[in-house]
Design a protein that fits this description.
about 350 residues, alpha+beta, Fructose-1,6-Bisphosphatase, Chain A, domain 1, D-Maltodextrin-Binding Protein, domain 2, 2 domains, five-stranded mixed β-sheet, 15 strands, about 20% strand, globular, binds 6-O-phosphono-alpha-D-fructofuranose
Length: about 350
Amino acid sequence: MPYRSSLITIERHIADQQHLHPYATGAFSRLLRDLMLAIRVISREVRRAGFADVFGTTGDENVHGEAVRKLDDFSNETIIKAMRYGGHLCAMASEEAEGIIPIPDALQKGSYVLLFDPLDGSSNIDINVTIGTIFSIFRRVSPDIDQTGDMDDLTQPGYRQVAAGYALYGSSTALVYTTGNGVDMFTYDPTLGEFLLSNPSIKMPEHGGYYSINEGNSLRWHEGMQNYIAYLKDEDSETKRPYSLRYIGTAVADVHRTLMYGGIFLYPADKKSPRGKLRLMYEVNPLAMLIEQAGGLAVDGRNRVLDLVPESLHQRCPLMCGSVKDVEKAQTFVENDPISEEVRENIAASTP
Ligand code: P6P
């Protein structure tokens, strides 16, 4: 029976899952509800971007020296405003903000921290190609519940995430999230103003037929990665090769296709970027939790992403993720690439 006919709203689903979290006091459910409101507001703005003056850039640059687009700014502010008053968070961090986003002194602090990429895929905004919002939630580790959280709360290893997910602003607006009990997808029905359960308990195929990587970087790849991608292009009916290349250039969209159809998404370390491009705390960690919860693997080339101990809030992290058989095959090719040496050197270089 197709779930599209189900009338299970995300609020109902969160409440139903609450019994799975003995420590859940309802605050966690209310936190997710507030985040869903922010995503609804961003979805509305993305949908009308062509009419409202929200295309283009603000003229500012973010902490990474990248041009900030108007929708980036709007999405960032929307999440901060929707989340700071609920009393569930003690701190936030965003791709668009250099340091901790504190909860104002006058407002109640909570037991969680939220890290997010407010609008992933910015370069695709003005050409109406799928973009998304990525989020990651941890319980605070600092003891003082009345104080704003600190960097230790925000830079925890990914296996401590209590929830992770993304919104996808594509042909429809979808929300995919996990609280550690599998992955569920909800599709937004704007006529009802509700996210309705559309794909419960998503499970990835053991291997797929797609690979997703920016082939423009191929001359920068280390030898192992070059050999792996060449392997995927060989003719071999038994292993269903050649794979098809799909690359949207929005990590959320490329990972979502990998989650739904199987295969592998890669943004590897290379000779120019020893730690790849994607950010560990608010892109790679949440995407890795979702992929693992759906039965896949997510590694930095050598290590399980969720085991990585962060050194800084905005650090980059190489990513290979997707179907178990595909990621395991890729690892046999790249295990001798000089990634760990360069990463170690790069860690020293980037430590402020
Ligand atoms: P490239 C979008 O700007 C982003 O951060 C990710 O969403 C995406 O996977 C990647 O950059 C694309 O980068 O170098 O292939 O254009």
